[in-house]
Specification:
289 residues, alpha+beta, 9-stranded mixed sheet, 6-stranded antiparallel sheet, 29% helix, binds N-(5'-phosphopyridoxyl)-D-alanine
Length: 289
C-alpha cells in the first residue's frame, strides 16, 4: 500500500496530486502569499479539527483573505478518497493568480485551495516519542508575524536544516534571549514540576496541541505558566518537550549535545503525551501507543 497515488482536491475538483498544475503567477508561488494547516488523522478522524479550522480562519483574516466555506466536508472527502486511516491532511490557501504586483490592496482574487491527504504506513514519529529526541538552540531569524500560519517558512526550513546537519531533530529558537518555539512545534519546559511555555504573541504559532495541553493540564490542576522563558531557564530545565500535530508531545532529551534532566523521557513529558493520547482516544475512538 506504500505506493498509493495521493488524491487531491484542487479548487473543489478531485484529482491525483501529480495532475494539479499551478500557474507561475499564483501569489503563493511568487510571494508565499497564502496560509496552510496540517491535520493529523487517526482512525479516519481529523484530531482537533475545530481548533485547526478556527486557526485557519484567523490566519485568513489576518492576511485579509476571504473566509472559506465547506472545508469540513472537503477535508472528509479527501480523507475518504485517500482511504486514510492513519495519516495527515495538508490544506493550503493562496490569495490566487494575478500579474506580479506586491500590494494586495484592491486585489479581489479567487483563492487557490489545495487539499491532499497522505496515508502513513506506520506512526512516523512514535519511535522518536518513545526514545526522546535531540535538539539544538538557535537564534530565531524569522519575521514578526509567526502567529500567522503562512506559507513563508524559509526561516523554519533553514533552522531545521541546520539542526539535521548537527544530528538533531528540532531547533529551539530564541529571540532576544527568550524561547519562542521549534521550527514546526511549540515548546514546554518543566521546572520543579511546573509546566512553562512561552505566552501567545506574534512570535509564536498558537499551536493546537499547545493550547489543548494547557487546557487539559489546568483542568487536572497541574501548574502551568505561560510566561517568557530565558535561555538560562531552558538550560536548567528538568524536562523539555515539544508539541505538534505530527509529533503530539515528544521529549527533548538532549539540547546542544548536553543531556536534559535525566537524559531520558521524563514523567511530565509522558503525562503530556498521555493526555493527548487520551484525547485522541475520546475524539477518534482509537488507542495510540
Ligand atoms: N507545524 N509552531 C510552528 C512554527 C509550526 O509549524 C507548528 C506546526 C507548530 C505546532 O502547531 P500544531 O500543534 O497546531 O501542529 C508550532 C506543522 C505540523 C507543519 O508545518 O508541518
Amino acid at each position: 500500500m506504500e505506493n498509493r497515488k495521493i488524491i487531491a482536491m484542487w479548487n473543489g475538483h478531485i484529482m491525483p496530486l501529480e495532475q494539479v498544475s499551478v500557474s507561475p503567477l499564483d501569489r503563493g508561488y511568487v510571494f508565499g502569499d497564502g496560509v496552510y494547516e496540517v491535520l493529523r488523522i487517526y482512525n479516519g478522524c481529523p484530531f482537533l479539527l475545530d481548533a485547526h479550522m478556527s486557526r485557519l480562519e484567523q490566519s485568513l483574516e489576518k492576511m485579509s483573505l476571504p473566509p472559506l466555506s465547506g472545508l469540513y466536508a472537503d477535508i472528509l472527502s479527501v480523507i475518504g478518497h485517500n482511504e486514510i486511516e492513519e495519516g495527515m491532511v495538508y490544506l493550503q490557501v493562496t490569495r490566487g493568480t494575478a500579474p506580479r504586483v506586491h500590494s494586495y490592496s484592491n486585489l479581489a482574487l479567487k483563492p487557490n485551495v489545495l487539499i491532499y491527504g497522505k496515508h502513513f504506513p506506520e506512526h512516523p514519529s512514535a519511535q522518536d516519542a518513545k526514545s526522546g529526541i535531540k535538539a539544538i538552540s538557535l537564534p530565531d531569524l524569522r519575521w514578526g508575524r509567526c502567529d500567522i500560519k503562512s506559507l513563508n517558512l524559509l526561516g523554519n526550513c533553514m533552522a531545521i536544516t541546520l539542526a539535521n546537519e548537527r544530528g538533531a531533530l528540532e531547533a529551539l529558537q530564541f529571540r532576544d534571549g527568550f524561547l519562542t518555539e521549534g521550527t514546526s512545534s511549540n515548546v514546554f519546559v518543566v521546572k520543579n514540576e511546573a509546566f512553562l511555555t512561552p505566552p501567545l504573541s506574534n512570535h509564536i504559532l498558537p499551536g493546537t496541541r499547545r493550547n489543548y495541553l494547557v487546557e487539559k493540564l489546568r483542568l487536572r490542576n497541574s501548574m502551568v505558566r505561560e510566561a517568557p522563558i530565558s535561555q538560562q531557564d531552558v538550560n536548567s530545565a528538568d524536562e523539555i518537550f515539544i508539541t505538534s500535530s505530527i509529533r503530539e508531545a515528544t521529549a527533548v532529551i538532549s539540547l546542544d549535545a548536553k543531556q536534559v534532566g535525566s537524559g531520558r523521557v521524563g514523567p511530565m513529558a509522558k503525562l503530556a503525551r498521555d493526555l493527548i493520547m487520551k484525547g485522541i482516544e475520546e475524539q477518534c475512538g482509537v488507542l495510540i501507543g
